[in-house]
Write a structure and sequence with these properties.
With about 230 residues, this protein is of the alpha/beta class. The protein has one domain: Alpha/Beta hydrolase fold, catalytic domain (Rossmann fold, 3-Layer(aba) Sandwich). It has nine helices and eight strands. It starts with a strand and ends with a helix.
């Protein structure tokens, strides 16, 4: 189950899906409300995105599925895994935000970023997409992502996620750290991973959108997680 990050959509996994299928995996994408393929949905909160993930997993009648979170999706995926129990198994965080119980997406943002984003949300209700170059993309890759990105619902930014930390820690967990160039906003999550036991950490020498810039390498990591 592949869950995209902020400003992205299920489209962002387009290069990875055929590689997973070729590797024998049944791979399904989740489209989050108000972003990507589902723009214009109003009243979106973090719970909405948790419910989006839960609904797709249950509709697919999964048991032990690998739940994959890119970037922002680390927050709703963590909440969804708590709800889903044994419907999901291993968790894979792809350069993703790693919350603790009661934290929000904003919790790991530096003060200047918080202030800027809260001002944007107060003015427009949404967060505008950054240029794809921020994610280490260039050329045709950057152009593709730039024209597909949408605004992101502002209602998710300061919503806390609630989950049982002990139950979460009992799951197999993989963290994919994208190191070239590293995205500074993910650094606090990388520090947490380094301090917590139980992680399998894979470093990819690519930018924040490895599903675009390094699909073969990412697909290999995801297939390994499915086999573990």
């Amino acid at each position: 189950m592949l869950v995209h990050g902020a400003w992205h959509g299920a489209w962002s996994w387009r290069r990875v899906l055929p590689l997973l299928w070729a590797g024998g995996a049944r791979a399904v994408t989740v489209s989050l409300s108000g972003v990507g393929e589902r723009p214009g949905v109003t009243g979106v909160t973090l719970q909405t995105h948790v419910d989006d993930v839960v609904a797709v997993v249950r509709a697919e009648e999964c048991r032990g599925a690998v739940l994959v979170a890119h970037s922002y999706a680390g927050v709703p995926v963590t909440g969804a895994a708590d709800v889903l129990g044994d419907a999901v198994g291993p968790l894979v965080y792809v350069d993703a935000v790693l919350p603790e119980p009661g934290e929000c997406w904003s919790s790991l943002s530096p003060p200047d970023t918080k202030a800027e984003r809260r001002a944007q949300i107060a003015a427009d209700g949404v967060l505008p997409a950054p240029a794809a170059a921020v994610f280490g993309l260039s050329g045709d890759d950057a152009a593709w992502v730039d024209r597909r990105q949408t605004t992101h619902p502002g209602g998710v930014y300061d919503d806390p996620v609630h989950f049982d930390a002990a139950r979460w820690a009992a799951r197999p967990r993989t963290y994919v750290s994208c190191t070239s160039p590293p995205l500074a906003s993910i650094d606090p999550s990388r520090v947490r991973v380094a301090r917590q036991p139980g992680w399998s950490v894979v470093a990819l020498a690519t930018g924040h959108d490895p599903m675009v810039s390094a699909p073969e390498e990412l697909a290999a990591v995801l297939l390994d997680a499915a086999r573990s």
